[in-house]
């Protein structure tokens, strides 16, 4: 089977994007998904994203981690919007459906602003915060991200959560409105250069625990800069937006 693909990246979180409006991609074939993500034997990516038709929305986005598990993906959602524009499915505004529900998004000068789900599942623990932002996220502050063993500590914490586990975000506060983040992602089972649902969880966790009073947060990550904004009322976070670039890298085809 020959698969046409488009490679996109959102602040270094990279994806194999497939126009699956013909519904011909073998979604149940996890070995193909894993091979597409393999950085030596395949294309190489953190995940695979399918774009499909939907009767009620401009399109449907399906995200697979490299291990075939499905969740929502914030950076992937922004790349899906850029890809949908390239495919002329949309212009600069869209309403699409994903595994965690409907999303609005807008494109302004190449920057994509993606509306995330409302966040009300937030658990504050002694040294960490857990939040669900379309997938599971553990958030904890550290003193010096450059020196921190993200992979080893991230893997340990990831598996300390009962199935399906949790992504793990380590945060260093830079100033009142800026928090640097490094993330270990479940399903990728490694540190990624950015995690959109992760920085969303971080921004909300920092506000929830009083590390910031702002509702517009800058989040420098290894692969670039992201921004999260939100409203908060009675501990529920709404109008949550994840903003940042999403870039086409190359297109190609691969046969299995
Ligand atoms: N990189 C993605 C998150 C993927 C989450 C996935 N790793 C999982 O929850 O299993 C993002 O930008 O939100």
Write the layout of secondary structure elements.
Elements: E1 2-10, E2 13-19, H1 30-37, E3 47-52, E4 60-65, H2 74-86, E5 93-98, E6 101-108, E7 111-115, E8 122-124, E9 129-132, E10 136-141, H3 150-160, E11 167-175, E12 178-185, E13 190-192, H4 196-208, E14 216-221, E15 224-233, E16 236-245, E17 247-255
Parallel strand pairs: 2-3, 10-11, 12-14
Antiparallel strand pairs: 1-2, 1-17, 3-4, 5-6, 6-7, 7-16, 8-9, 9-10, 11-12, 12-13, 14-15, 15-16
The protein binds 2,6-diaminopimelic acid (API).
List keywords for this structure.
single chain, 256 residues, alpha+beta, Diaminopimelate Epimerase, Chain A, domain 1, 2 domains, 17 strands, diaminopimelate epimerase activity, DAP_epimerase_DapF
Structure in words:
It catalyses: (2S,6S)-2,6-diaminopimelate = meso-2,6-diaminopimelate. The active site is at 73 (proton donor), 195 (proton acceptor). Substrate binds at residues 13, 65, 74-75, 167, 196-197. Its main location: cytoplasm. The protein has helices spanning 30-37, 74-86, 150-160, 196-208, and strands spanning 2-10, 13-19, 47-52, 60-65, 93-98, 101-108, 111-115, 122-124, 129-132, 136-141, 167-175, 178-185, 190-192, 216-221, 224-233, 236-245, 247-255. With 256 residues, it is an alpha+beta fold. The chain has 2 domains: 2-110 and 246-255, Diaminopimelate Epimerase, Chain A, domain 1, CATH 3.10.310; 122-244, Roll (Diaminopimelate Epimerase, Chain A, domain 1). Strands 5, 6, 7, 8, 9, 10, 11, 12, 13, 14, 15 and 16 form a 12-stranded mixed sheet that branches. 2,6-diaminopimelic acid binds next to helix 2 and helix 4.
């Amino acid at each position: 089977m020959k698969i046409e693909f488009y490679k996109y990246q959102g602040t270094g979180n990279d994806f194999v994007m497939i126009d699956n409006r013909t519904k011909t991609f073998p979604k149940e074939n996890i070995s193909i998904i894993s091979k597409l993500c393999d950085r030596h034997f395949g294309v190489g990516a953190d995940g695979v994203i399918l774009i499909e038709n939907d009767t009620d929305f401009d399109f449907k986005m399906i995200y697979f981690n490299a291990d075939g598990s499905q969740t929502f993906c914030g950076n992937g959602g922004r790349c899906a919007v850029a890809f949908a524009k390239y495919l002329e499915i949309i212009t600069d505004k869209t309403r699409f459906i994903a595994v965690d529900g409907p999303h609005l998004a807008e494109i302004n000068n190449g920057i994509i602003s993606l509306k995330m789900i409302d966040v009300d599942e937030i658990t504050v623990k002694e040294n960490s915060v857990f939040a669900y932002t379309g997938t599971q996220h553990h958030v904890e502050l550290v003193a010096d991200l450059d020196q921190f063993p993200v992979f080893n500590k991230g893997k340990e914490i990831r598996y300390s959560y009962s199935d399906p586990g949790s992504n793990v975000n380590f945060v260093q506060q830079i100033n009142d409105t800026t928090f640097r983040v490094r993330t270990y992602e479940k399903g990728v089972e490694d540190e990624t250069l950015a995690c959109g649902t992760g920085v969303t969880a971080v921004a909300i966790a920092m506000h929830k625990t009083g590390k910031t009073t702002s509702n517009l947060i800058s989040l420098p990550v290894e692969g670039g800069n992201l921004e999260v904004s939100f409203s908060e009322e009675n501990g529920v976070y709404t109008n949550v937006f994840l903003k940042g670039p999403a870039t086409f890298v190359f297109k190609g085809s691969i046969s299995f």
